Amino acid sequence: MTQVNDLIFFISFLCLLPLAVRFGMGMLDVERRFLERSLRKKEEQLIEPSRILKDIDREKVYLEKKLADLSRLYTITREMSFSLRFIELFKRLKDFLTDNFQFKTVKIIFFKHNDAKISVEKTYNIDDDSAGYADLGETLSGIAVSAAKAKKHLFLKSHEDLFRFGFPPNVKNILAIPLIARRKVFSVMLVENTNPDENDNFSILAPQVALQIERISLFDEVERLSITDGLTETFLRRYFLLRFKEELQRAKECSTNISLISVDLDNFKKCNDQFGHLVGDIVLREIAGILKENVREIDLVARFGGEEFCILLPETDRTGAYAVAERIRKKSAGHTIRAYDESVRITVSMGISSFPELASDIDGLVENADKALYKAKRQGRNRVCLAL
User: Fold this and answer.
1) Residues 135, 218 within the same domain
2) pTM of this prediction?
3) Known catalytic residues?
4) Domain termination site, one of 169, 189, 223
5) 338-367 in b/e burial notation, b at 16+ Cβ within 10 A?
6) How confident is the model over 292-333, as pLDDT tens digits?
């Protein structure tokens, strides 16, 4: 009986042995996979710090670049704040952009706002040695106005968009950034062929440029109000005499001519008495406008008091001054002034003196011009007389 049991046990063992082997192999495979996972995890744990260090290094380089960019932008902002004129501002801006940015051209477009309409007033180039005010083509003008109206950046970079706007093939992109201060668009910065990676820096710089443009514009306005007559928008006597002194000194140093025209409105007191001072004010403004329209940009027109004006003509002899005065006289005599419900015609009388023919100082030139003016009055008004 014992032998039978042993035989049964042995046969059972032989039957179960393959199962036991497979089970054991399965356990070993599980253990192997577990150990492999554990090993990979250990390896990943060893690799992770290296990856983290590389990420940290990349982030460090990025932050250092951003810090350097902000430092440079702070520097130019500080330098721009010292500028009191647009020429100075754009000179500093040009130097900064040339040293720190990649671009082909940069333009600052100024706008005028009339009845909620935006139009280009003038353009300033700050990208080359011929920097200064220049004309703006219709294409760039349209882009600038679009950016100003939207108060958003425009970045044209696709060939289709550039071709549609008429740009030549060498233009790779156009960046238009509105320069906004106190919610008002003062101007737009147009950048051609910029590096797209630097567009963020242009965006950071733009508000600072806008603030400086606003500051200089306010300074110019205050200065203008301090030296101009509020009614006629001609120069005040004090400023005129200061500039007269400078121009006369320059004429002496350069051996050039300079002429002075003294202008007086004929029978202006009668005009005031007949139509009232409100109409008289309009008459003064209209005549002042005629004076300014018929002289050069370098000439100076000032209101000396009441209805009397003076015109200073640098680099002009008495013959040239007489031609200017005659043109003004004819324009004034043929001009009908509409003032409220009245239509007014008024003439002017003028006297001319010149350096170096008649006098060598301001007092002498003014006195001779006044004498010639009184002569024109005595001869019947509405005429031009030369000082003798």
Assistant:
1) yes
2) 0.65
3) 307
4) 223
5) ebeeeebebbbbbbbbbbeebbeeeeebbb
6) 999 998 999 999 988 999 999 999 999 999 999 999 999 999
